[in-house]
Give the backbone structure.
Amino acid sequence: MKLWDRLARLLWHSVVGKLWATIMLLVAVVLLILGVFLLQYIDIWFDQKDSHDIKVLFVITAIIGFLLSTFFAFFLSAKIQQPLLQLKNAADSVSQGDYGTRVNIRSSDEIGQLANTFNHMTEQLDKLIHDLNDGRNHLASILRSMGDSVITFDAEGQVTLTNPSGHLLLNQWSGLESAWDDPKVGASLTTSVPVPLREIFCSVKEQGRDLTEKIHVHSGVWSVVMAPLQSGGVVRGAVAVIRDVTEEHKLDKLRRDFVANISHEIRTPLSMLQGYSEALLDDIVASPEDRKELVQVIHDESLRMGRLVNDFLDIARMEAGHVDMHFQEIDLRNVLRRVHRKFGVYAKEREVELQVQMPQEPLVMRQADEDRLEQVLTNLMDNALRHTPAGNSITITGEHLQVNGTPYIQLQVKDEGQGIPQEDVPYIFERFYKADKARKRGTSGGTGLGLAIVKNLIDLHYGRIVVDSVAGAGTTFTLLLPVEAHE
């Protein structure tokens, strides 16, 4: 039997019960009035003695009958109203959020059936609310754990829901200001939509479909996917999923630069090898001196391509973690001396003063690869000499240093060359990145891999490298290497 049918029957029983109670009260009143009326004629119908006894008996009987009728009337009314009051109180509790409320009615009539149906309804409702709360908590946990920013807007552009990442993003973008020149955007609209998202938000509201855009905010790049929230064919808001793709954008730019640089680096020596070898094959050059010069150029360009391939293989192995390292206890003063001797003659030819400064006590590292650290200093010195004009100096220093109670060895390569522009400093350790883009790529030109190799080798020694450079005033590379072996 449906709940509505039971409610209707319960209402009918309630009306009938109240009707019976009213009838019984009316009967009691009628009998009382009739008794009062009959009392006036008892004296006429009976003698005085019998009349008095009959009056007393009649009054007592009338009072008892009236009390009994009244009692049964109120009893019947209360008996019917009590379960209704219980159901009413239970319904009030449910409406206030107490979904565990149950009605304790054990009768087998329609009221009992209605109570059982009500208890079953509240049990299902409690289970449904519990499942909804679990689903909401699960969704909230997913939103909190998402690295992407999720922001939900209503039709007026007010924020209705966001995760922690989205909240931080809203705070970052809240201070941005922009004028809406397009009148269809609605400049007078009171909205909480951040300025970078307003155009996308208005387009989603107008078109009613998903939109994917990339926006640039300050120095960051953000991917925005915004979808409309529709109800009955009407857009009632939008939800935006925002991801920081600055690193991906940077890597894509580096990939394009990598392709361009490696193509240029290989094309130039290949062109020279092809041209000069064809000249030799066609006997264009007759004199032995010219032939020897062409052979020397071919040899130099082949060496340059070999260096390029070797550097590329080295950095590929380092980034893959396959480089062989021979760690042992070393004295860095020996490395500094060898590097100084290696570049001493070359520096004198270029009229560059080369100095080395180191303490009398050993610069001991408990666990280091001496050849790899010499390669680091060699790459740094090669860069310094190629960018330091004649008449200036390059200084190599080594010293002990304490950082937060931990012993380190600090190495510095300081030149007085042309320096590095500030906009290029964050990228100089990337593969094939060259700050001096206008530099001629001859035999003295670099491959663009030297500093990337340096960074990877320092990381393998659990050290740090920083650069301090001012355009036109020189560059200083500072290496911080731990003395003790890394666990």
